[in-house]
Specification:
Layout lengths: L38 H18 L3 H7 L5 H8 L17 H14 L1 H21 L2 H12 L5 E4 L15 E5 L2 E12 L6 E7 L5 E7 L5 E5 L11 E12 L10 H36 L1 E2 L2 E2 L4 H29 L5 H25 L11 H11 L6 H13 L6
Helix pairs in contact: 1-4, 4-5, 4-7, 5-6, 5-7, 7-8, 7-9, 7-10, 8-9, 9-10, 9-11
Length: 410
Amino acid sequence: MTAQHTGIDFPNGVVEPDYDLWTGEVNTDPTGVFADLNEADAAWRSKARRFVLEEVKKDIHEYWDKAEYPLHLLKKLGDADLLRDGLNVDGYSYMSPLAAGLVNMEMARGDGSVATIIGVQAGLAVRSVMYCGSREQIAKYAMPMLSGELPGAFALTEPTHGSDSVSLETSARRVDGGYLINGEKKWIGNGSVGGVSIVWARDEENNVRGFIVHQDAEGYSATTIENKLSLRAIWQAHIRMENVFVPDEDVMPEAKSFKDTSRVLFATRLGVAWSAVGHATACYESAVNYAKQRVQFGRPLAASQIVQERLARMQSELATIQVLTMQATKREAAGELTGPQASLAKYTATRTARSIASNARDLLGGNGILTSNRVARHFADIEAIHTYEGTETVQALIMGRDITGFSAFA
């Protein structure tokens, strides 16, 4: 461009173009694994993709940069019926396990924080009440959470019990008319936004029980965790409960042991694998778009042999986790998915997504560290899903026990 008003002949070649990394002619389904989706599942995927492009894309990097929670999206997700994670409820359209996975994938393809909102609200909090609550509790709590009117948290992890969550020590002591809860929880998504927390605690018989705790209850204090590298647009809390009274009407009757907690967690593991596929998809398509648009040494990066080899490697990795996660979901739909198979899917998808993100970040050069250029956010957010819902090491130990017949757990 020429700056006529200053009289300066400004060189065209120093003005960087605006890169479009979100759209473009990028084939993100190289093996056609999604080509034969039935009409209903395809519609769920399209709905999630449309939500991302219309509601998330425009300003999510600003929320992420400022570590602000776009809480308004919770109600919009509820209005769009995207807060279900495969739970089927009377009066709602049927959602298959595959549809739930595709929604998770498309949400993570848009942003990891928004995908985690669904994972926390629907996958964990709503599912806990649907699986373990009474009819009255489902009507009072689960339905408003499904509609996005009531924020919900899942309070299991403790500051001193992360992977070893079965050893949780938060206590529930029986008193007249209910229980008194004492203890701390950490990394609790939605735990400080003014809704309810599904708290898991040990009763006086050492049984793990589930409690619906109002976040404005006396003795409940929650501090939003700051200085996070990942998932900056959803708030996780460090919770302290000192003699928090929970009336009997808010004690979930079917939450009687850690097996009930595990049933909820097991149902969400594939959701994390699908989220990893979504993050990987975003990084791959961003890298392809950038390589086509970025000109260096007189030609697009995409014309370089080494860039094509790296894109081919990323495509191969993406196809691998797409096929694996799809196969695991088919087994889930048939009621045949085992714990080690779910662990294999989560383990492989998250570690492979890390590899794809690393390559994409590198291919973008200096632009790869700008959150407004998309890849940087996914690069960071994948570090969170690499850890949560069972670290890579824990998943490997579950797989190793299945492979060898020997348990390496303490």
